[in-house]
Each structure stands twice: as structure tokens, then as C-alpha cells.
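User: Sequence recovery, please. Input:
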């Protein structure tokens, strides 16, 4: 079945593209969700008019999402997690955790839009890509730090031993 796309569909086409798809895919998925309209000669002018309206709506949406992506780029997310030896954390920082922090910051981001090759499993600073919209991606800085109450300094016990040795020298 030949259809004209009303929205961008990944791996299928852009708005206004005329594509041929299986009949069932068009009837059961694309047309009911208003992602596409059937391309027959009777409704061609109506479709062109609707596409112009959709393109204008798409441009406005793209401009809003680009502005949101710029705001997100300046955002820094901080995760305080338990860490073991060699700065390895217990568990990991996942896409769901990052999406939750972004929602707390006021951005509507689904975890599927957060792009991580592997979950974050060590302390440090990471740059995480966010796919805001097709063609619009941004990066968010993620800081993974250890909990303060678990941070121990190795120099503190050494100093107390040295002072104890000095005290014993002065008494002898």
C-alpha cells in the first residue's frame, strides 16, 4: 500500500515522503495512529494541505526542543553512590537513573532516549548523550561521586601513629 508519511518515522522516511509499505502495517499501525495517510488521487490536495500544516507544526516543535536541548547541555547531574576499592561503585548508574534526575530537573526524558554504551560502574565525570528528538542530540555532564560518610582518608591514621611515636620518644 502506498502511503504519505505525516510524521518522521525512523527507518521509513520523513514527513511528506511517499512510501510503499505492507497493507497490514499501514492499516493497523500507521493510519490509525495518524502517522500516515493513504495516497490515492482523490485526497492528494487535502493531503498536501495537511502536510503543510504538519510541517509548520514540526518546525515549531523542533525549535522548542532545540531550545530545551541547549538548556540540557548546561546541566550537570550528580550521583552520590557507595564506592569500593579503586573507585568502583556498588551497582551502576543506569539510563533509568539519569532519566529520573532529568525529570527532577524539569525535563521530560524517557530512559530509552538516554544513550549509554555501558552502565557507569566507576567514580568520575562522564558525558552522556541524550536523543531529544530525531536529529536533535545533546550531551549532559554526569558526576559520579562517593558518599561523604564512607570517604576515609588514609593519612589520618598514619598521622596519629607518627604522633604516638613522637610522644613515646619524648617520654623516654
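Assistant: Recovered sequence (172 residues):
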Amino acid at each position: 500500500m502506498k502511503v504519505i508519511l505525516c510524521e518522521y518515522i525512523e527507518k521509513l522516511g520523513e514527513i511528506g515522503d511517499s512510501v510503499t509499505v505492507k497493507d497490514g502495517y499501514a492499516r493497523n499501525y500507521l493510519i490509525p495512529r495518524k502517522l500516515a495517510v493513504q495516497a490515492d488521487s482523490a485526497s492528494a490536495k487535502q493531503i498536501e494541505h495537511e502536510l503543510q500544516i504538519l510541517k509548520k507544526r514540526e518546525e515549531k516543535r523542533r525549535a522548542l526542543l532545540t531550545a530545551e536541548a541547549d538548556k540540557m547541555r548546561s546541566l550537570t547531574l550528580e550521583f552520590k553512590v557507595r564506592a569500593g576499592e579503586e573507585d568502583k561503585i556498588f551497582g551502576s548508574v543506569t539510563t533509568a537513573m539519569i532519566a529520573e534526575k532529568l525529570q527532577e530537573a524539569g525535563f521530560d526524558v524517557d530512559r530509552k532516549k538516554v544513550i549509554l554504551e555501558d552502565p557507569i560502574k566507576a567514580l568520575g565525570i562522564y558525558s552522556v548523550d541524550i536523543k531529544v528528538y530525531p536529529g536533535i542530540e545533546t550531551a549532559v555532564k554526569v558526576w559520579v561521586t562517593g558518599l561523604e560518610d564512607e570517604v576515609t582518608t588514609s593519612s589520618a591514621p598514619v598521622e596519629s601513629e607518627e604522633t604516638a611515636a613522637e610522644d613515646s620518644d619524648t617520654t623516654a
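The chain has two domains: 2-58, 72-150.
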